[in-house]
Write a structure and sequence with these properties.
mainly beta, 6-stranded mixed beta sheet, 22 strands, 290 residues
């Protein structure tokens, strides 16, 4: 039996838009026209400007996507200000994202008698090897974008996603990290689909994730599909949007058949709902009055 304790949330709660001049600090004086937008960890902010070409946040820079900069905020990002920049038709512009704390809630899960419920030393060694494989995926070089927003659905029809960001308690034991993706309860055996064109960088059976597929879509976007009953692609294979990657299953640490779907963009783990819906719904930085 699974007991769920979750807070209700909405776009307004997850990414509260507060366009205000940045306050004067004792360290420096921000330009009077600089805008600030408040957002929660695990969300996404966009900034459109004429001729937008490049974007930056912290130490990373990347190309704008069709004239818009998208700034993903990692689920584990600490609260505080983050300076963002945009190179457009004119001078380089700056704004701030105020990362605000957000509690996604807690979920208690009762696992059946499976190895993932009580891993042996051999199981943990296998999982450590899985982490090494993934570290290579996260370090891959960012190529040109092979996608536009919104992404295609990972399963059809697409049910509501759930449990992103929650703290999980498995059989009374707190998981090491929050739930980094969303769960989709589609009919058993449903085809699992690539959300955009890309290259399969990993397709393998992992201890906790089960049969898994990782696709590099360029521009630093990696999509992930876990718990598949079977794999129909292999590493190095080029795939097209809507192509079948496998079928929904319950391999790995799962209480029943479902799809775990997640995205990692510019190394930030965010709620995939932002990329599956109309990008106009993503909270936007607007220029404040000059």
């Amino acid at each position: 039996m699974t007991v769920v304790h979750l807070r209700r949330f909405s776009y307004q709660a997850l990414a509260l838009v507060c366009l205000i001049p940045h306050p004067v600090s004792t360290a420096q004086t921000a330009p009077a026209h600089e805008a600030t937008i408040s957002a929660a960890p695990g969300t996404l902010v966009r900034w459109a400007a004429p001729g937008a070409k490049r974007c930056s946040m912290r130490a990373r820079t990347w190309a704008a996507l069709n004239g818009t900069c998208y700034y993903p905020i990692d689920l584990l990002e600490r609260a505080g200000p983050a300076t963002i920049a945009l190179w457009g038709a004119g001078a380089k512009e700056f704004a701030r994202i105020s990362v605000e704390p957000y509690d996604y809630g807690t979920e208690e899960i009762t696992l059946p008698d499976i190895p993932q419920a009580n891993p042996s030393q051999a199981d943990l060694k296998r999982d450590a090897a899985d982490r090494v494989q993934l570290s290579r995926v996260w370090r891959s070089k960012e190529g040109p974008a092979q996608f536009t927003l919104p992404l295609g659905p990972p399963v059809k029809p697409l049910p509501p996603g759930k449990s992103f960001g929650v703290k999980r308690v498995y059989n009374g034991k707190i998981a090491e990290q929050a739930h980094m993706g969303s769960d989709y309860d589609a009919p058993v055996g449903s085809p699992i689909l690539a959300v955009a064109n890309g290259t399969v960088v990993l397709a393998t059976d992992m201890f906790f994730e089960g049969n898994s597929v990782f696709i590099d879509h360029g521009d630093g976007l990696i999509s992930m599909y876990f718990h598949l009953s079977e794999l129909k692609v292999e590493a190095g294979q080029e795939v097209k949007k809507g192509q079948t990657l496998g079928r929904e299953g319950s391999t790995g640490r799962a209480t029943g058949p479902h799809l775990w779907f997640g995205v990692r963009w510019h190394d930030a783990r965010i709620n995939p709902k932002f990329l599956l819906e109309d990008p106009a719904r993503i909270p936007s930085v607007n220029r404040a009055a000059q």
